[in-house]
Amino acid sequence: MWTVVSDALRRQRISAVLISGFAVGAVLLAAMGLFGIVSSSVTRRRHEFALRLAIGADHARLVRLVLGEGATLVIFGVLIGAPGIYVAASLLRGVLVGISPLDPLTLGSVAVGLSFVTMVACYVRARRVLGIDPAQSLRQE
User: Fold this and answer.
1) pTM passes above 0.85
2) Contact 101, 89 (CB under 8 A)
3) pLDDT tens digits along 73-98
4) Which of helix, strand or coil describes residue 10?
């Protein structure tokens, strides 16, 4: 009996493994893209950060500023992606076994996971602000 059930569910298991692999790849691509955007933003705004430090801002405030920008990106991403969930749900309904494509726990955990990946990527680049020497940076240009 176990063999019959295993053979019947083999196609769905393969589909689930493939979808999971593509999902992990998508999360990594999103993290790398966000890392690039935040890195570019920090590099472009280096003089602004140096000026802020020169007039009295502390490093923690600048790190919070960069993290706040990352949080804004996450919020807009979730708001833009939310309607896509309902479109994708109709396409994935036949592939998923034992779970609804609109399961609130799954959707919430995915949103929290993506938020975590985003904040880690932003924090790594925000630490670059800690290395800014205001006098040296302002003399460069």
Assistant:
1) no
2) yes
3) 888 888 888 888 888 877 777 766 66
4) helix
Kindly report the number of other CB atoms within 10 A of residue 79's CB atom.
9
CA-CA distance, 15 to 8, in Å (whole number)?
13
Is the Cβ–Cβ distance between 51 and 138 less than 8 Å? yes
Give one DSSP letter per residue of 101-132, joined into a string. TT-HHHHHHHHHHHHHHHHHHHHHHHGGGGG-
- The CA–CA distances, whole Å, from 13 to 40, 81, 107, 118, 130 equal 40, 26, 20, 29, 47
Task: Let me know: does 126 contact 38? Beta carbons within 8 Å.
Answer: yes
Which residues lie below 8 Å from residue 35, measured CB to CB, with a gap of 6+? 121, 124, 125
